[in-house]
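Quick one:
INPUT:
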């Protein structure tokens, strides 16, 4: 099997780079062993919320100089300030062009509300999700409406968050007779299953009646993210009929918005002609000189997959793109050079809420994001996303930003190398 580019890992990074390369006429395959971090997605992409020393960031674009002083190996610093700004701006238009609407921009963080009721800064928030700037929330009274017995959304936590920003709230619960069928098994009473009932056409009139009654006297409805899974028109339709906005709040996992974003991107990639090898696992590769020549997977056994270029986007420890044993942190497919602290005692802090050093471990790359093996860059192997070293996604609040921008960056490197690249004035 021969491709222009083979991508290992079908999470946010692999899908964005795959779509970008397919848009430019490449023939690509994605090998993806399983679920990705998107299944736990909050509905907001973070670009840069804090500098490594903890200083809050309001304007990510204006923070690159200071970031380069504090974290010279940060993936954003490797790209350079102007490329960071260009790709951060283009990421939003890339999403818009493929049909994913978001709110926010890269020169000013806005705020979102977490399922725990915390108010956090972020970069891009999916449309219909609660989004605001400090002091600029336009609503005074909101109705928080939950489904009876749905424990992955806690209206009390959410109410506290809204009250902090000066919004008065009321809390109400409702039931639909059909929900009693899934309620019998508490482990089934999750956002994805609820949406199968709430999304049904036959339930829409009753839903409008209930939401209308429960939100009387309120200008806004706050609802858990458990609606509109397979029908993007459903929520706009409800809003239209109710005559007032509905803002979604993410629930505890599984994340409906994350699963639907993953499926949407995967479908987009395959509609462009990409091959998505779901449930397969890249195991090892042949490397000759400084080139990957063949890749092998669990399902294809000794039938090699070859490509002019390979992108490694297999994620961090969470997705087993990185593994650790008692002595070392390693990358299991190519055995690439990794960055980690040699003394295991320094890997983590026993205070869970403190900075955890292991989050910064990852695969070493050169400036062009080539993977490095035995100190030598591999010319046709690019590394992107959560597997990269040099950043702390949680403490810096930059997880999706690093994934998104490095995905676009490596795609661009490949297109330049293969001379099919046009400057990205527009993603067409
Ligand atoms: C639980 C969780 C929630 C997060 N939520 C957010 C959020 O809400 N907002 C935000 O900004 N950031 C968030 N992040 C940060 C996150 O890292 C990025 O947002 C981003 O989604 C990571 O994408 P990725 O594709 O690089 O890696 P992943 O999403 O981890 O995907 C890697 C993929 O590679 C596959 N894979 C691994 N090894 C192989 C192999 N050998 N062969 C084939 N496939 C393989 C895995 O199965 C997986 O599908 C979150 C991170 C985690 C862990």
């Amino acid at each position: 099997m021969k491709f222009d580019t083979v991508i290992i890992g079908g999470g946010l990074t692999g899908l964005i780079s795959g779509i970008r390369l397919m848009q430019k006429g490449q023939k690509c395959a994605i090998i993806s062993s399983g679920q990705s971090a998107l299944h736990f997605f909050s509905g907001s992409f973070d670009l840069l919320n804090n500098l490594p020393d903890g200083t809050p960031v309001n304007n990510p674009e204006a923070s690159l100089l200071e970031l380069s002083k504090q974290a010279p190996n940060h993936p954003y610093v490797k790209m350079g300030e102007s490329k960071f700004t260009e790709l951060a701006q283009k990421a939003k238009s890339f999403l818009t062009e493929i049909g994913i609407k978001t709110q926010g921009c890269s020169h000013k963080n806005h705020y979102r509300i977490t399922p725990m009721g915390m108010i956090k800064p972020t970069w891009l928030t999916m449309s219909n999700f609660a989004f605001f700037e400090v002091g600029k929330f336009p609503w005074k009274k909101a109705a928080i409406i939950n489904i009876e017995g749905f424990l992955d959304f806690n209206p009390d936590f959410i109410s506290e968050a809204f009250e902090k920003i000066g919004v008065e709230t009321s809390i109400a619960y409702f039931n639909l007779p059909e929900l009693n069928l899934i309620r019998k098994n508490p482990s089934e009473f999750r956002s994805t299953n609820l949406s199968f009932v709430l999304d049904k056409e036959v339930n829409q009139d009753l839903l409008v009646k209930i939401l209308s009654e429960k939100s009387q006297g309120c200008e806004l409805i706050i609802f858990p993210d458990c609606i509109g899974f397979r029908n993007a028109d459903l929520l706009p339709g409800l809003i239209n009929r109710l005559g007032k906005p509905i803002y979604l709040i993410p629930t505890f996992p599984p994340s409906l918005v994350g699963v639907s974003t993953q499926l949407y991107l995967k479908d987009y990639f395959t509609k462009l002609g990409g091959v998505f090898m779901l449930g397969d696992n890249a195991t090892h590769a042949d490397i000759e000189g400084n080139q990957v020549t063949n890749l092998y997977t669990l399902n294809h056994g000794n039938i090699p997959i070859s490509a002019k270029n390979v992108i490694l986007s297999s994620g961090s420890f969470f997705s087993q793109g990185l593994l650790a044993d008692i002595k070392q942190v390693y990358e299991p497919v190519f055995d690439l050079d990794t960055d980690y602290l040699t003394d295991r005692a320094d890997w983590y802090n026993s205070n869970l809420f403190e900075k955890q050093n292991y989050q910064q471990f990852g695969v070493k790359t050169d400036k062009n994001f080539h993977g490095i093996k035995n100190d030598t860059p591999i010319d046709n192997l690019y590394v992107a996303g959560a597997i990269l070293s040099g950043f702390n996604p949680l403490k810096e609040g930059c997880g999706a930003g690093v994934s998104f921008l490095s995905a676009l960056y490596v795609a661009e490197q490949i297109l330049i190398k293969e001379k099919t690249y046009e400057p990205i004035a527009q993603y067409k």
